[in-house]
Amino acid sequence: MNWLLVVAGAAVGAPLRYLLDRAVQTRTVGPDGSDALFPWGTFVVNATACLVLGSLAGAALAGAASSRLQLLLGAGLCGALSTYSTFSYETLRLAERGRGFLAAANVVMSVLVGLGAVHLGSQVARQLLG
Fold first, then answer.
1. 121 Cβ neighbours under 8 A, 6+ residues apart
2. Distance from chain centroid for Cα 10
């Protein structure tokens, strides 16, 4: 029955990803109403998922997160909230449109911010729960 926990988390994570992405994208449109030059929606969604997953990992290390909670929030919620495929697609589109610098910046910033968010979440959770 563990798979039901993953499904339940994903049922929340997928719509949350869509809503958060849309909320960010509507605030980052160009002055003429065009799409933003940088895929901020996906960037924020993935950074948020990293922060949540890092917090969950820190809670697990502190003994405060059960394996069921890890399935629900880690595999389910964070798995559906984060989106490597959209990140890859948007990076490719930037490069194809001649925006190589922005494509490279998206890769570097996504990796660095993602790692930083995981670390921050883990450290905060361990401090609070440890």
1. 50, 51, 52, 53, 54, 55, 56, 57, 58
2. 13
pTM above threshold 0.85: yes
Average pLDDT of span 19-36: 85
Please give the Cα distance from 110 to 108 (Å, whole number). Answer: 6
Confidence of residue 3 (pLDDT cuts 50, 70, 90): very high
Kindly report the number of other CB atoms within 10 A of residue 21's CB atom: 20
Token readout for 86 is 């959209």
Average pLDDT, the chain: 95
How far apart are the C-alpha atoms of 82 and 78, rounded to whole Å?
Answer: 6
Share of the chain above pLDDT 70, in %: 98
Residue in the structure block whose two tokens are 């968010």: 117
Strand residues in 43-104 grouped as ranges (E) = none
**DSSP E strand boundaries for the chain:** none
